[in-house]
Amino acid sequence: MAANQTLTIIKPHALRDNNAGAILAVLNKAGFRIAGMKMTRLTRDQTENFYNEHRGKYFYPPLVDMMSEGPIIVAILEKENAVTDLRRIVGSTDPAKADPGTIRRMFGLSMRENAIHASDGDQNALREIGFFFSETERY
Length: 139
Ligand code: ATP
Ligand code: MG
Hints:
The chain has helices at residues 12-16, 20-29, 44-50, 60-67, 82-90, 103-107, 122-132; strands at 5-10, 33-40, 72-78, 116-118. By secondary structure, it is α+β, with helices and mostly antiparallel strands. A 4-stranded antiparallel beta sheet has the order 2-3-1-4. It binds adenosine-5'-triphosphate (ATP) and magnesium ion.
């Protein structure tokens, strides 16, 4: 089952720009089922922990600022090959380099404000789902 689930975060700027509904519609159209979803806001501590793998990189401090600056929508997405297929529809980290039709190309503003997060592997998907959702919040 794990391989069929992944985690996405609609980043604060995308929520602020009123693009959450449009992004979720793209995901539904691509075949993803929502198996859990919530609106929440990360503290700086939580954000640092979530992006721990990037600690020490030059983009880490502004990344933490950006992800904790406002509310987010976080969702468990389910379909066959969920991790790979979500990365494909999300597109390149840099929206300017993302393929037409991808979420980052459509809704990303910059390398940092790139609209949406996607787990990058099955192990990270499991970790990230557990980070946000208790058992009773998964459907
Ligand atoms: P995500 O983990 O959010 O799905 P990603 O896997 O495409 O994105 P990572 O390398 O994991 O990219 O970087 C995590 C996030 O850090 C990026 O989504 C982006 O917001 C920010 N980031 C990464 N590289 C840069 C950079 N060179 N300049 C500014 N921000 C960056
Ligand atoms: Mg990543």
